[in-house]
Specification:
Family: Belongs to the ABC transporter superfamily.
Distance between the termini: 45 Å
InterPro entries: AAA+_ATPase (IPR003593), ABC_transporter-like_ATP-bd (IPR003439), ABC_transporter-like_CS (IPR017871), ACT-like_dom_sf (IPR045865), MetN_ABC (IPR041701), MetN_ABC_transporter-like (IPR050086), NIL_domain (IPR018449), P-loop_NTPase (IPR027417)
Largest sheet: 6 strands, mixed
Strand order of the largest sheet: 6-7-8-3-9-10
CATH superfamily of the largest domain: P-loop containing nucleotide triphosphate hydrolases
Keywords: Amino-acid transport, ATP-binding, Cell membrane, Membrane, Nucleotide-binding, Translocase, Transport
Number of domains: 2
Number of helices: 12
CATH architecture of the largest domain: 3-Layer(aba) Sandwich
Strand content: 25-35%
CATH topology of the largest domain: Rossmann fold
Pfam families: ABC_tran, NIL
Organism: Alkalihalobacillus alcalophilus ATCC 27647 = CGMCC 1.3604
Order of helices and strands: EEEHEEHEHHHEHEHEEHHHEHEEHE
Structural class: alpha/beta
Bound molecules: adenosine-5'-triphosphate
Number of strands: 14
Shape: elongated
Length: 341
């Protein structure tokens, strides 16, 4: 659907070169919700501007639905852009137009007959849950309602791709959750491919299928949200993941457990179906070992379970070693090292 092949974008500022995007290769498949995350200045917005064709790459190629967009004429670019809806952090609504007027605007630009526009606007107002707000002006709406109008307007021309530029960053957590649910519905009901940029990992965790992490213009890690969350490779990815899942208790608690038990602590990671089974109790019982769960969580990611438990084992050393080697053959297990505390 969208493919970046070795794409770079360099801006020239006087004598200085700014390498906003560096050698990015990424494939975004039809129907996916793909998130791009990175700190400020990482190159996310530039990458989006390459997709909606507001920037051309300095080198490399951007394909959208198998078309090399750098080769399009200005007229073709305008037509292709209608196929891409966009929503923004600050909503970008026309304050002088009503809610219905905002949603109708792209259809008017496209020369759609008035009757069809009215039907489509009514349909979209119902879809985003704002049927009673058609005649209101944006100033009379809450942030969440404004973003619903933004979504309805972006969907007006029935695009195949929806780009979300920090679409929930200005909203409170509850409204963010509602808007993310609505985006998921847009994706599911209409099969629209969603490309979103954010600096918040919980947004990625909530709705994305795939994620790319950007730093200094480069994609430093990319893959399924499940794989990235359960086995982050790059230190920056690990920092983002830690912002949403605290997988270790405080140092004070860990130290207490260490000294109390006089022993070692282990982290066990369960992935997928394995989390449904009583592995821990079965294996420890078999070897006459007891255990304490010091800390832990089991969460759902992309309809799969992911468990992360910190355990201390109590029993004979040889029995504990047997438990550890049996568990290692079934789940991921590692010692929680001193420096983590
Ligand atoms: N038009 C431009 N001219 C010059 N430099 C630019 C331009 N657009 C972006 N940059 C620079 O490119 C780099 C990447 O910027 P970009 O806006 O893509 O990052 P970002 O990850 O979206 O950041 P933020 O989250 O703060 O919006 C930055 O150093 C920025 O200053």
């Amino acid at each position: 659907m969208i493919e970046f092949i070795d794409v770079s974008k360099t801006f020239i500022l006087g004598k200085r070169e700014v390498h906003a995007v560096k050698n990015v290769s990424l494939s975004i498949n039809k129907g996916e919700i793909f998130g791009i995350i990175g700190f400020s200045g990482a190159g996310k917005s530039t990458l989006l501007r390459l997709v909606n064709m507001l920037e051309r790459p300095t080198s490399g190629t951007v394909f959208i639905q198998d078309i090399d967009v750098s080769k399009l004429s200005s007229k073709d670019l305008r037509t292709r852009r209608r196929n891409i809806g966009m929503i923004f952090q600050n909503f970008n609504l026309f304050n002088s137009r009503t809610v219905a007027g905002n949603i109708a605007y792209p259809l008017k630009l496209a020369g759609v007959p008035k009757k069809e526009i009215n039907e489509r606007v009514t349909e979209l107002l119902n879809f985003v849950g704002l049927a009673d707000k058609a005649k209101d002006f944006p100033d009379q709406l809450s942030g969440g309602q404004k973003q619903r109008v933004g979504i309805a307007r972006a969907l007006a021309t029935s695009p195949d791709i929806l780009i979300c530029d920090e679409a929930t960053s200005a909203l409170d957590p509850e409204t963010t959750a509602d808007i993310l649910k609505l985006l998921k519905k847009v994706n599911r009901d209409f099969g629209i491919t969603i490309l979103l940029i954010t600096h918040e990992m919980h947004v990625i965790q909530s709705i994305c299928d795939k994620v790319a992490i950007m730093e200094n213009g480069e994609v430093i890690e990319a893959g399924s949200v499940f794989d990235t969350f359960t086995a982050p490779q790059h230190p920056t990815t690990q920092r983002f993941i830690q912002s949403v899942q605290q997988d270790l208790p405080s140092k004070t608690i860990l130290e207490k457990w260490r000294t109390r038990g006089g022993g070692k602590l282990y982290r066990i990671i369960f992935k997928g179906d394995v989390s449904n089974e009583p592995i821990l109790s079965t294996v420890t019982k078999e070897h006459g070992v007891d255990f304490n769960i010091v800390y832990g969580s089991v969460r759902e990611l992309q309809e799969k379970l992911f468990g992360n438990l910190i355990i201390s084992f109590i029993g004979e050393q040889t029995a504990i070693q047997n438990v550890l080697s049996t568990l290692k053959s079934i789940v991921e297990l590692e010692e929680v090292t001193e420096h983590e505390c």
